[in-house]
From TrEMBL:
This is Polyprenol monophosphomannose synthase. Keywords: Glycosyltransferase, Transferase. GO terms for biological process: glycolipid biosynthetic process. The keyword Plastid does not apply. Residues 6-173 form the Glycosyltransferase 2-like domain. SUPFAM superfamilies: Nucleotide-diphospho-sugar transferases. GO terms for molecular function: dolichyl-phosphate beta-D-mannosyltransferase activity.
Length: 255
């Protein structure tokens, strides 16, 4: 079984993509990268493909026909990871808001016996966000408070997008039933993993807003999270979640 796959969705990230790829490949652990590009008009995919010969067998790309949403990109990446037998699957942004060095901490935490999901958390030890306007910090912070209040999810940073999953989570969750595409996608994945009984640990990180390129955040995405959380909670009342204890035993046996 292969070990580590970092999934990085991209749309117009030519200013960052080569640097983030090289930074990940310089780490002390071996990581492979899967870029999922939504037909970036700025040539992001071409830059990735030009690097594939240098990083043969380590750098992969899926090119999609258009801008189809963050959630669908990750779902496609998860299916790729399962098909190609990766054990630890990461979500990461292309713009250096997530420090590549923190991949090592997420992996270390996810290898603990009772943990299957690790979260790069901006809010576990306070508010560790650099270069965001105060309004956006408050919006993000209060969104996590809101999620915890509505759902009971015991996570400080419910909307975090810097994640490590053990493959057992992705094998258990019916990926085709994950419907949200923005903030709410991140919440839905964490909530579903928690409902199945998987172990979660938050790893404190410092989140630094991008210095190059343009943010993809929008009010529409945030509204999806606000109303989607209520919808998600109501749907969970009518769904049975089989405990993941058998899968935890399987993970421990291979650790």
């Amino acid at each position: 079984m292969k070990e580590n796959l970092v999934i990085i969705p991209t749309y117009n990230e030519r200013e960052n993509i080569e640097d983030i790829i090289r930074a990940v490949f310089l780490l002390s652990e071996r990581f492979e990268i899967l870029i999922i590009d939504d037909n970036s008009p700025d040539g992001t995919a071409e830059i990735v493909k030009s690097l594939q010969e240098e990083y043969s067998g380590q750098l992969h790309i899926i090119e999609r026909l258009g801008k189809l949403g963050l959630g669908t990109a990750y779902i496609e990446g998860f299916k790729y990871a399962l098909k190609h037998n990766y054990e630890y699957i990461f979500e990461m942004d292309a713009d250096f808001s997530h420090n590549p060095l923190d991949l090592l901490e997420l992996l270390k935490a996810c290898k603990k016996p009772d943990i299957q999901l690790t979260i790069g958390s901006r809010y576990k030890t306070g508010v560790n966000v650099v270069n965001w306007p105060m309004g956006r910090v408050l919006m993000s912070y209060m969104a996590s408070k809101y999620v915890k209040f509505i759902t009971g999810l015991p996570v400080y940073d419910a909307t975090a997008g810097f994640i490590c999953y053990h493959r057992s989570i992705l094998e258990t969750i019916k990926l085709e039933e994950i419907k949200f595409i923005g903030y709410a996608f991140q919440i839905e994945m964490k909530f579903t993993a928690w409902k199945y009984g998987f172990g979660i640990e938050e790893v404190p990180i410092i989140f630094t807003d991008r210095s190059k390129g343009v943010s993809k955040m929008s009010k529409k995405i945030f509204k999806e999270a606000i109303f989607g959380v209520i919808q998600m909670k109501i749907k969970s009342w009518f769904k049975k979640y089989k405990p993941a204890s058998e899968l935890k035993t399987s993970q421990n046996a291979t650790a």
